[in-house]
From TrEMBL:
Keyword Transport annotated: yes
Regions annotated as coiled coil: none
PROSITE patterns noted in UniProt: ABC_TRANSPORTER_1, ABC_TRANSPORTER_2
Residue span, ABC transporter domain: 5-234
Pfam families: ABC_tran, TOBE_2
Keyword Cell wall biogenesis/degradation set for record: no
Species of the source: Pseudonocardia oceani
UniProt name for this protein: ABC transporter ATP-binding protein
Domain of life: Bacteria
Keywords from the UniProt entry: ATP-binding, Nucleotide-binding, Transport
Alphabetized GO MF terms: ATP binding
PANTHER family, alphabetized: SPERMIDINE/PUTRESCINE IMPORT ATP-BINDING PROTEIN POTA, SPERMIDINE_PUTRESCINE IMPORT ATP-BINDING PROTEIN POTA
InterPro entries (alphabetical): AAA+_ATPase, ABC_SmlMolc_Importer, ABC_transporter-like_ATP-bd, ABC_transporter-like_CS, Transp-assoc_OB_typ2
């Protein structure tokens, strides 16, 4: 594969404080990299730095095709889609062609090149509609079509699914995956949602406090967090220190892998068992969340079980949270 965009020792800061420091990052042509992190981690700052836009002080290099690139070269190669789609007055078709028009393409040619992307994103039938009448999901599809129409060598997506309802988000993720699979474009997706990373990205970088804490194939990063902070990001939110498990080292587990049992029920051999008291039971549609306060103290443990899985339990009930050994991950307590 050919490296399309990357950076070396990239720093963004205000006064004497670093907001972001990425020592090394590359994205290949035809690859999607997800940058996953909590709010305030520096995800959007990284995207803006790669695009060479904005005013904060920078140091280091942004690379295009493996070579240092100035702002003009980077901006010519990049198209971006923001969290909130920005559409101009006029029709959907005019908005889809707007990026090409800004790059000097004639009106007829811009229309010819942009219409197929509206079709690919499922909004071709809306081409003649006033863009201001679109739903949030429709508007985001148009914004993505506009970005793709310019034929970008690099596509930057800044939480493009935020604010969409679950069904709309799922449909758009599926359609975008189908589109990206056929492109030679290097794509960087900024998100706080591990499910989006899993659906779209071959590799994932976990960004914590402005630094990449873990980076690798998405399936491995999501399944094998490097430390406690990374574990929280990828959904292993239950922390199980030695005081709870009797084992050495910190273990983590996903709520969906934790099960509440009656105190007199014996867990399978090898499972971790943590006695405690039910703090609350919250129905969540197809499932139920049960939070348990460990008997020996510490943070509550969350269990996600199918509907009906809380039968016989109520607030204040004694219980024991069990986790199969195969579902536990060992991590260092601090980065």
């Amino acid at each position: 594969m050919t490296v399309r965009i990357g950076c070396r020792d990239l720093r963004v800061g205000v006064r004497d404080r670093d907001l972001l420091h990425v020592e090394h990052l590359d994205v290949d042509a035809g690859e999607t990299l997800a940058v996953l992190g909590p709010n305030g981690a520096g995800k959007s700052t990284l995207l803006r730095a790669l695009a060479r836009i904005g005013r904060p002080h920078r140091a280091g290099q942004v690379l295009l095709d493996g070579r240092p690139a100035d702002a003009r070269a980077v901006r010519a190669a990049v198209a971006a889609v923001l969290q909130r789609p920005i559409l101009r007055r006029g029709t959907v078709a005019a908005n889809a062609a707007a990026g090409l028009r800004l790059r000097g393409v004639g009106r007829a040619e811009a229309a010819r090149r942009s219409v197929p992307w509206l079709d690919a994103l499922g909004v071709g039938h809306l081409a003649g509609r006033d863009a201001r009448t679109l739903s949030g999901g429709e508007a985001q599809r148009v914004a993505i079509a506009r970005a793709l129409a310019v034929g970008p060598r690099v596509l930057l997506l800044d939480e493009p699914f935020a604010g969409l309802d679950a069904t709309t988000r799922t449909d758009l993720v599926a359609d975008l995956r189908a589109v990206l699979d056929d492109l030679d474009t290097a794509t960087v997706l900024v998100t706080h949602d591990r499910h989006e990373a899993h659906a779209l990205a071959g590799r994932t970088a976990l960004l914590v406090a402005g630094r990449i804490r873990q980076h690798g194939p998405t399936a491995r990063v999501l399944d094998r967090p490097a430390d406690a902070d990374c574990a929280q990001l990828v959904g292993c939110t239950n922390l199980l220190p030695p005081a709870l498990t009797g084992r050495s080292g910190l273990l983590v587990a996903r709520p969906e892998h934790c099960r509440p049992l009656r105190l007199d029920d014996a867990p399978p051999p090898g499972d971790v068992r943590v006695p405690g008291t039910v703090r609350r039971i919250v129905p969540l549609g197809a499932g139920v969340r049960i939070d348990v306060d460990p008997e020996s103290g510490g943070r509550p443990l969350a269990c996600l079980v199918p509907a009906g899985g809380a039968v016989g339990l109520q607030r204040g009930s004694p219980t024991a949270v069990t986790v199969a050994n195969a579902d536990l991950r060992a991590v260092p307590p601090d980065a």
